[in-house]
Automatic annotation (TrEMBL):
Hydrolase recorded as keyword: yes
CDD domains attached to this UniProt entry: cysteine_hydrolases
Keywords: Hydrolase
PANTHER family for this protein: ISOCHORISMATASE FAMILY PROTEIN YECD (PTHR43540:SF7), PEROXYUREIDOACRYLATE/UREIDOACRYLATE AMIDOHYDROLASE-RELATED (PTHR43540)
Domain Isochorismatase-like: 10-178
Organism for this UniProt entry: Catenulispora pinistramenti
Protein name: Isochorismatase family protein
UniProt key word Chaperone: no
InterPro entries named in the record: Isochorismatase-like_dom (IPR000868), Isochorismatase-like_hydrls (IPR050272), Isochorismatase-like_sf (IPR036380)
Length: 188
């Protein structure tokens, strides 16, 4: 379903656009994902809307069939947000140790304190950090919008599954251009 609205108090959540992740093999060219994400960041900042920049520094300690990366050392700089995001003092900075940007970070409370009713989620990886964050936001009562051209995954199949099977149950989806048109049209 295409985007229907951009609430007055909408926040942008940018997931895991960090040095250690953008260089991984991805299903879609990362430069396009970065360009569309930074275009959204610029528009949200121009309109005085909250921007949350999220990085991941570990994983939950629980056992999984694939193992966990929570205890593995990462190279220096792995968690650094990419410079294209141009982090600003007013941005909400979130470091997570789980897939969802909401898990144990206080992000929901920070957004609610700003009166946020809707979130737009972009970044890497579609079927992991983006999907988990979108699910949490939906379950916490936020309206969720997902510009699917501003995200990618290491697996084309996982990306496609999230976009076609999961996202329609928890969010509205569309393109960055469609969301920006709504955002610009909803502001004086």
């Amino acid at each position: 379903m295409p985007f229907s609205a951009v609430d007055t108090n909408t926040a942008l959540i940018v997931v895991d656009l960090q040095a250690g992740i953008v260089g991984l093999p991805l299903a879609h060219p990362v430069q396009g994902v970065i360009a569309r994400s930074t275009e959204l960041i610029g528009a949200f900042r121009r309109h005085g809307l909250p921007v949350a920049l999220v990085n991941v520094a570990g994983a939950p300690p629980g056992r999984t069939e694939r193992g966990t990366t929570g205890g593995h050392a990462r190279p220096a700089g792995w968690t650094d947000l990419i410079p294209e995001l141009d982090q600003q003092p007013d941005d909400i900075a979130v470091t997570k140790y789980a897939r969802s940007a909401f898990s144990g970070t206080g992000l929901a409370a920070q957004l609610r304190a700003r009166g946020v009713t809707q979130v737009v989620v972009v970044g890497i990886a579609t079927g992991s950090g983006v999907e988990s964050t979108a699910r949490s936001a939906h379950e916490d009562g936020f309206h969720v919008s997902l510009p699917v051209d501003a995200m990618t995954d290491g697996s084309p199949d996982t990306h496609e599954h999230s976009v076609t099977k999961v996202f329609p149950k928890i969010a509205e989806t569309g393109t960055t251009a469609e969301l920006l048109a709504l955002l610009e049209g909803s502001r004086p």
